[in-house]
Write a structure and sequence with these properties.
Largest sheet: 8 strands, mixed
Oligomer: single chain
CATH class of the largest domain: Alpha Beta
Distance between the termini: 63 Å
CATH topology of the largest domain: 2-enoyl-CoA Hydratase, Chain A, domain 1
Number of domains: 3
Helix content: 25-40%
CATH superfamily of the largest domain: 2-enoyl-CoA Hydratase, Chain A, domain 1
Number of strands: 17
Shape: elongated
Amino acid sequence: MKNQDKVKNLIDLRVQAKLGGGEKRIVSQHAKGKFTARERIHMLLDDGSFEELDMFVTHRCNNFGLEKEKYLGDGVVTGHGTIDGRTVFVFAQDFTVFGGSLSETMALKICKVMDMAMKMGCPVIGINDSGGARIQEGVTSLAGYAEIFERNILASGVIPQISAIFGPCAGGAVYSPALTDFILMTEQNSYMFVTGPKVVKSVTGEDISTEDLGGADVHSCKSGVSHFRVDDEQAGIQTIRELISYLPQNNLEEAPIEDCTDPINRLEDVLNSIIPDNPNTPYDMKTVIAGIVDYGKFLEVHADYARNIIVGFARFNGISTGIVANQPKFLAGVLDCDSSRKAARFVRFCDAFNIPILTLVDVPGFLPGSAQEYAGIITHGAKLMFAFGEATVPKVTVTLRKSYGGAHDVMSSKQLRGDFNYAWPTAEIAVMGAAGAIEILEGRSIAAITDAEEKTKFIDEKVNEYKEKFANPYQAASYGYIDDIIEPRNTRFRVIRAFQALQTKKVVNPLKKHSNIPL
């Protein structure tokens, strides 16, 4: 073969590889409202930045006639490129080739980009659209999954890992996304489950649809498996690009700093009156967040799950910051099993990747009741306490209203090494609310009063007395547990100045192999 023919052959092979499973299957993919693997990568990365690896890899299986059907790339597109000029490594499963099922060689391709991402210290983004293990390959497919899982585990806390679920993700395949930092799912087309509806029906007798078993709604609202739920793939890809903008390349770097023209001393007058006079009246914590962050821009994580707590990313004077905030609008902002786990995972992510944490507190306590106790509220609450106490990144806490009991300690208190702990004048820092406290403290005296009017008057007097003592931040400030009491509308300025002072913070935890967080 002449040299020119060799070049032409290369060009033809590249064209063939880019067709994946062929035109007919690409049309079928589009008919389902889904993009192909390469289309997804090109939407995700900066124009012209994608460099593909292992385009000519094919499977090695000779079972069940599979040797007669081979496709270049073998069901996954891998390589690297840039997002806003920053290098990332990517892999995208190609459903047009054997339904995106995982083979030995496909696993090797994925492992190669994960190894390279670790070597270069760059994020890795996986786009999942796969029918699961390639059954014809048997145990080698399972071994391939385990190789990927091990790399997910070793990369955890070293480089950011993001998983987009743009199609099926079932069986063993679900555990790779579950080991990554963030999972994103699309409405309608994506689902995740360990066992599908048919197996569930045969084993348990439960008749359930694919969507109800493992769709985006289920995992975004009920299980908390998915961190982001989006309408379609374009929205999902835009969310990934936005998320990456808040993150450093790896655990040894800081997140990128953006130019900020939003004045640091901008006053938000609405905050001075946002706390209702009635302590049982809710308000929206998102209004507070929007009022203090740069340009009011906030990327919420887990927006539909455990809505009594808010977590997500924003910037203060251009610096990426994680925010954890109780949400009085849902369940009065109480801490329960789900909200504790949600916030603990987020705090640990921020700490792993050098992202400062702002905690906004309005918490009446932990949710009482047998359901919570049986579900392990003690252990789950301890996870959040452990996460805040272990974190060494800059931590600023602002108490807006209630901060009661053990929940006060958990929410990045001074004793959990909160660096700057501020309070609004509306803050109530106490063991419990006034009415409950008086029932305990004055129970005998109350029981001894027989006249109903006298009893009511006595209780009201004692409640007001308790409120004067404890329903304010000044006692905590007198002990130094609160560093300053600040005017609400000046919160943005005080938070930014606090984080500026903490830029050179250095704290090292005791030497150990690893901690044993209560799981």
